[in-house]
Write a structure and sequence with these properties.
alpha/beta, 222 residues, globular
């Protein structure tokens, strides 16, 4: 492990990404604490310390962030669709506002956030709120890594595999190649590796990791 990053605080540790990221960090010797509801404590991977609280109320967890070096924010509306625009603001945006302020107060030097590929022709409300979340992080003054996947293939998220041949064609068609790559599919191991790499290598300022960069990483490289 390079650098001085030894402790990580995660919001969203029992979700789709968190439950795969936490074991990788523990294997590398990080101490990991995760914010959870009381009823979800048992869902955390063994070895991860639970911090019981409410992601929408930073008073329930802000005193437990330090002495983490990195805050990883993985909270978001599950299975987003255009009908959930109100939830995007009440959960996704509100949780980032709370977390960014709490992270600054705790003097944590690095904030890792999973956003979404931008711009995009669909899911406009979702993309707009994620852009607002990114701006909140920028305005906080935190050093941050912002990852921008579009769709993450993995357990329960496999139907887009049928689109891979179409993506391959689009990525080699010059008029739409760049947008096809930016809105491309990434696999769960690639996303976990990108998150782990972000934790291991703290940003100075704000660093954006988009789909082509996420695809370059594998767990063997972490």
């Amino acid at each position: 492990m390079s650098g001085a990053l030894h402790e990580v605080f995660i919001a969203g540790g029992t979700g789709y990404l968190g439950r795969h990221l936490i074991p990788r960090l523990l294997e590398r010797g990080y101490r990991v604490r995760a914010l959870v509801r009381e009823e979800s404590r048992s869902k955390l991977p063994a070895g991860c310390e639970a911090v019981v609280g409410n992601v929408l109320n930073s008073q329930t967890y802000r005193e437990h962030i330090a002495p983490a070096d990195t805050f990883v924010h993985l909270v978001g509306t599950s299975h987003p669709n255009p009908l959930k625009a109100d939830e995007f603001r009440k959960v996704d945006l509100a949780s980032v506002e709370m977390a960014a302020a709490a992270t600054v107060a705790a003097d944590v030097r690095h904030f890792v956030y999973v956003s979404v590929a931008q711009p995009a022709p669909v899911m406009k409300a979702y993309v707009a709120v994620r852009a607002e979340c990114e701006q909140v992080i920028r305005d906080s003054g935190l050093n941050a890594t912002i990852l921008r996947p579009w769709y993450i293939l993995g357990p329960g998220h496999r139907w887009p595999y049928v689109l891979i041949p179409l993506y391959k064609l689009a990525e080699n068609f010059p008029p739409i190649a760049d947008s096809s790559k930016r809105l491309g599919l990434v696999k769960l191991p690639q996303m976990v590796a990108a998150l782990a790499n972000a934790v291991q290598n703290a940003a100075h300022g704000v660093r954006i990791i988009d789909v082509p960069q996420i695809r370059q990483l594998t767990l063997s490289g972490f």
